[in-house]
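Deliverable D5.2: sample structural annotation.
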Amino acid sequence: MALCVPTKNQRAIECARLVTFAKLVPATTAFGENNRRAIEAQVAVIRDGIDEDDANDQFGDSESALDAVNDAFLWMSGVGEAPSIGWESLSGVQRLPLDDIERIVGVPAKEWAGVCNTVATAIFESDYAPARGGRLCYGHWTGHIGEENRFSGRPFTHHAWIEVGDRVLDATRWVFEDCEPYIYFGPRDHYDDGAQAFCAARQKPYPSQSSGKLFDDVPAPAQAVIRQVGGNPDGPIGANQIFHLANLPPATAPVMKEVYLWIVSLGCSGYIPIDFRRIARIVPEKR
């Protein structure tokens, strides 16, 4: 299936990327809030500078281009209606045929709210072409949640989707957005696979004292990670320290898979969250 080809309007494309990036910057700190303001200001500058000739190629006239960029910026900030098809091509988003997925799932899309994992799994286990070679993901949706659905009021919520390369296939994203059903196939913008970012934000310091059963012969990958998180890898380490390592997200270090495999060899696989094992591919995935 052919993917969307960006238009020649480089300013609008840059604007799209900035808008996407703005949503990734945490707004819970003054630093994050200041960065968002800076990004919004830059978006305004770029929006005002959209070239009329290039805009005509995509939208027919420059005024429509300005409206599309502005509407999309508001929408991605949680205000207004979903963006136009023209904006979607600029931002790399593609809407896949809804009928195809309804046939795979066997239930009308209107009934998919609250069963994201069932829907994503059905697509993943089918022979649906855009999902081939993809990876079934479960974690957190961190984007905007509208005010008229069962998830309203949450800062984030559990969610399931499929990642295909650096793109996401999400059949139930519309539930959060309070809009008509559609199949999202686009950038990985508001997804936290395995709740890794959430877990990292809540991670406690590496235990300075060992307790419980002691383990000798700590392999080099585990020693490197212990140093990275501020611990001392010399000598045997305790079960409490093994538990800490097991609960470090896969994104902590490139060697986390080796660390998990070592923990499994110790008979402590239950310490590792199942989503971390899935991401590190140390348990077989159904296909």
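Annotation notes: Residues 125 and 286 are 7 Å apart (CA to CA). The chain has three domains: 10-91, 96-193, 199-279.
The annotation will be released with the project's public dataset once the embargo ends.
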